[in-house]
Design a protein that fits this description.
Layout (H helix, E strand, L loop, with lengths): L1 E6 L2 E6 L4 H9 L6 H8 L4 H17 L6 H9 L8 E2 L3 H7 L6 E6 L4 E7 L7 E8 L2 E10 L5 E3 L1
Helix pairs in contact: 1-2
């Protein structure tokens, strides 16, 4: 599934396993101000999420500048959608890629507007409150977590 996160600093896109949908929604229930806080809130649910996204964005930042975006453009052109690396939305090509569903869909988490948009979601409709299984390095554990989105958060559709 493709996830797009919009925060006051811009937007990023990454592809991740579908079970991370609830984990990111659970992080949103804590009203994160930016991507860093959102990822920090996922650490108790699965530390792998933050590590994977932060490392991938570090690679993006190392190989792409405002003057030279060839690396991300080549990656988007040559990779299957489900294999694209995490990237920052910096131009029309990355914007278009960030809006392309992957397998089970595309969900946009807008931290600024406090809105979650399920553009396409064939995995499982996200609920305002739910529970999920805690994971470690992507593997399920015996623990569960619960979340409830605050009233100011919109969930579309």
């Amino acid at each position: 599934m493709r996830f797009k996160i919009v925060d006051p600093n811009g937007a990023v896109s990454f592809v991740a396993p579908c079970h991370e949908l609830k984990m990111i929604a659970a992080a949103c229930s804590k009203n994160p101000r930016d991507l860093h806080e959102l990822l920090e809130y996922t650490r108790d649910l699965d530390p792998h999420i933050k590590r994977r996204v932060v490392q991938a964005l570090a690679v993006f930042d190392e190989h792409n500048t405002s003057d030279d975006r060839d690396m991300i453009h080549q990656a988007l052109d040559s990779s299957r959608p489900e294999e694209t690396p995490a990237f920052r939305i910096v131009d029309s090509k990355t914007r278009d890629a960030s809006l392309t569903p992957v397998k089970a869909g595309l969900v946009i988490f807008n931290l600024v507007a406090k809105r979650i948009v399920q553009v396409q979601n064939s995995y499982a409709n996200l609920q305002r409150q739910d529970r999920g299984r805690v994971r470690e390095n992507g593997r399920p554990t015996r623990g569960f977590y619960r979340y409830r989105l605050p009233e100011e958060w919109q969930l579309v559709p």
